[in-house]
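residues and backbone:
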Amino acid sequence: MSENAVNVLFVAGVERSGTTILHNTLSQVDGLLGAGEIQQVFRHGYVQDRECGCGLAFRQCEVWSRVIQRAGIGREAAKDAATYAGLFANRYIPSSRLRGAAYSENRFSSLDDRLTRLYRALRDVADGGTIVDSSKQLLYAMTLERLPALDVRVLHLTRDPRGVQFSILGRKNMGHRHYQRHNAIRVAFVWNTINSSIERWGGSLGDRYMRLTYEDFVSSPGPVLKTVAEFAGIPDSELPLVDANTIRMSPVHIVTGSHHRTETGTVSLRLDDKWRREMPSWWACAIKGMCLPLMRRYGYA
C-alpha cells in the first residue's frame, strides 16, 4: 500500500454476512484501525451522536473527538454530508451501472473534500496505520477508490445466502423495521446483484481486490487473519489469538454495526449455521435455486 496516501481496507458485501465480527477482529491486529461503517459517521456520529463501540457517545469518545478536531468539519457541513448516506444504498447499483461511472462521480463529487479530510484525520489518529472500513456498500467503495488521497483495497466478504436469509428473518421476527419488507425473493436478488457487482468491479482493481467467505473466516481465523494482514500490507503483525478459534477483543471505535460491535474480552468465533437445522428445507431449496450459479462459484453448492 502507498506510503503517503491514506491506506484503507474496505470490507464490501451483503448485510448480515459477518462484516462486523470480521471488522472487530481485524481491529485487534497491530497496524489496523477499525472505524466501522464510516459511510454512516456523518449521520450516526456527527448528527445523532450515537454510542461508540467503546461505550461512550460519539462526541465523548476520545478517538472520535480527536478525529473531529483534526478533520475540521463543522456540524452544518456534516449534516449536509449525512444526507448523501442513503444515496449509496445498494438499490441504486443497477441504475448506476446503466448510467456509467461518470454518473456516480458527478453525483458524489461534492463529498470529496469532506471524505478526504475525514480519512486523513483517521490516519493521523491511527499514527499512519491502515483504516478498516466496514461500510459494505459498493457505490461508497467506488467513491473512495477514485479519491487521489486514498489507497483503497477491497476485501469482499460473502456468506451462504441461506444463512443471510435466516439471519434477516431473525431480525424481522424481532420487529426490526429495516427488514420488514425482506422476503426470500428479495434477499436472493440482492445477494446475486451485490456480490456479482462487487466481484465485477473488483476485477478492475487487480491485486487490490480479495474475496473471502464468512465460513472460512470463523472456521480458521488464524490463517485467514494472516492472509488478510498480508493483503493489507502488514504481513508481520502479531495476531490477537488466544487459541485456534478464540480472539482477545479490546473495545473498537465503531459507530454502526450489529450487536457484536460492543463485544470485548475473550470472544470465541463460532460458525452461525442454525439455518441448516431450523430453516424449512423447501425454503433453503428455493434460495439455492435462485442463487445457484454464484453459490457454485463461491463454493456453497
In short: DSSP finds 14 helices and eight strands in the chain. Residues 42 and 82 are 5 Å apart (CA to CA). The domain at 6-298 is CATH 3.40.50.300 (Rossmann fold).
